[in-house]
Task: inverse folding
């Protein structure tokens, strides 16, 4: 049974950074890409980028280029998403999701609140 | 504004059938697999359809997917109140760089 378990909710100040983790179990971590998707309150899904753990290669949505860094630690089957220069518009639930041409497993989501 | 266009809402009575459209272009739907996701209130999205028309294990055959050209469609038959949710289509897009794109989402109301 594949599971993606994410770290807990965060409250951050504008201008700071946040790092969210996503630990995989029950599958072969390196065999899949891990994407990060966020959802602002009352809004739709927005893809931020992905990493291919076996290659250590990440690519990012243009909107987040320069502000997001996605990494993976194969030894612990954990992916990370770090978002910097936070602003109020970054308040959202952040999900990790596994897959190449679709996302078959999702983390439970991590609420990040940006507030002064 | 989403690259993939979905109707904001659809509704139908229990037991009826509904379809949700997802319109794109040759840089996304036209040349890539489409998948569909169901998001119940307060929960993470769940994969409903992958590779245009395949159902993961555990997804009832009331849910179906199809693709033609640069559009895709999700069909749900025998509607149940538990089907009330937001539905999203998604696929890869290569118009500028390689990015995954979602439709704006469709809220299904079972009247």
Result:
């Amino acid at each position: 049974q594949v599971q993606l378990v994410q770290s807990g909710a965060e409250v951050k100040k504008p201008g700071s950074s946040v790092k969210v983790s996503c630990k995989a179990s029950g599958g072969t971590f390196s065999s899949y890409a891990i994407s990060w998707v966020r959802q602002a309150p009352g809004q739709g899904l927005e893809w931020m980028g992905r990493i291919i753990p076996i290659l250590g290669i990440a690519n990012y949505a243009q909107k987040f280029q320069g502000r997001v860094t996605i990494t993976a630690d194969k030894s612990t089957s954990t992916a990370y998403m770090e978002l910097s220069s936070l602003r109020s518009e970054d308040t959202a639930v952040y999900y990790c999701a596994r897959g190449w041409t679709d996302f078959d497993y999702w983390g439970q989501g991590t609420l990040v609140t940006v507030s002064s | 504004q989403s690259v993939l266009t979905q109707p904001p809402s659809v509704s139908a009575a229990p037991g009826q059938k509904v379809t949700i459209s997802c319109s794109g272009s040759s840089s996304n739907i036209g040349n890539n697999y489409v998948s569909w996701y169901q998001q119940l209130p307060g929960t993470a999205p769940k994969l409903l359809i992958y590779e245009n028309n395949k159902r993961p294990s555990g997804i009832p055959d009331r849910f179906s997917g199809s693709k033609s050209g640069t559009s895709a469609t999700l069909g749900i038959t025998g509607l149940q109140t538990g089907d009330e949710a937001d539905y999203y289509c998604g696929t890869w897009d290569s118009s500028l760089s390689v990015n995954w794109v979602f439709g704006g989402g469709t809220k299904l109301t079972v009247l």
